[in-house]
Write a structure and sequence with these properties.
210 residues, mainly alpha, 7 helices, globular
């Protein structure tokens, strides 16, 4: 039996725990998103998931999937939308603006310099080959992150089976049938929202009966 005054052993938190860290300050928020943005050449989704979920633990895997889904359907770049959401969540409007500044300030300077350099060598066969290679790597990073996040579907309120069916319908509609994204969001996305609300309502009803 452990004495009350004895130090408790360091037990790693369970991956499913909801307790997680948060930005220590606005400065921490700014430099965290700056570092995240500077790593996000092509495969930003993989970098965002690794930094915010695995390293900093500002979001659980399930929270990341939900927030990323919202960021995707909003106008504008996904990761910029996510930075605004996280900044606002912890520090309000100031946090949203600071996170946005971290995402854009240094990367914008680098892009301007690279654009000036690239303008003179864009027709080079070597440069064109390098860009094709980076595109393949970026696709691999995104696919690997998707496989990492699959486990979060098991605890989704809609149920894993429904999530898989909706994902398959979305893939067929966009990749094979070439249906415009807006129509897919309105139809499949609307169906998913309706089912999620139904499931949440059932959980609420069951909770009130207990």
């Amino acid at each position: 039996m452990t004495h009350p005054d004895s130090p408790t052993p360091d037990v790693p938190p369970h991956p499913a725990d909801k307790v997680h860290a948060q930005p220590a300050s606005l400065r921490d928020l700014f430099w965290s998103f700056t570092w995240l943005a500077l790593q996000g050449f092509g495969g930003v989704l993989a970098v965002v998931q690794r930094e915010l979920v695995e390293k900093k633990r500002w979001l659980t895997p399930a929270e990341f999937v939900e927030d990323w889904a919202v960021a995707q359907i909003l106008p504008g770049p996904n990761v910029v939308n996510l930075s605004l959401m996280i900044g606002d969540r912890y520090f309000g409007l100031r946090g949203a603006l600071v996170a946005l500044a971290g995402m854009l300030a240094f990367p914008m300077l680098i892009v301007l310099v690279l654009a000036a350099v690239f303008a003179g060598i864009s027709d080079s066969p070597g440069i064109q080959g390098a860009l094709r290679g980076m595109g393949a790597v970026a696709a691999g990073l995104i696919a690997a992150t998707g496989f990492k996040l699959i486990a979060s579907l098991k605890i989704n309120i809609m149920g894993a089976t429904v999530c898989w069916v909706l994902a398959a319908i979305t893939f067929v509609a966009i990749a094979l049938l070439r249906v415009p994204l807006a129509w897919v969001l309105l139809s499949v996305g609307g169906l998913a929202c309706a089912w999620a609300y139904r499931q949440l309502d059932q959980v609420r009803v069951l909770g009130t009966k207990k």
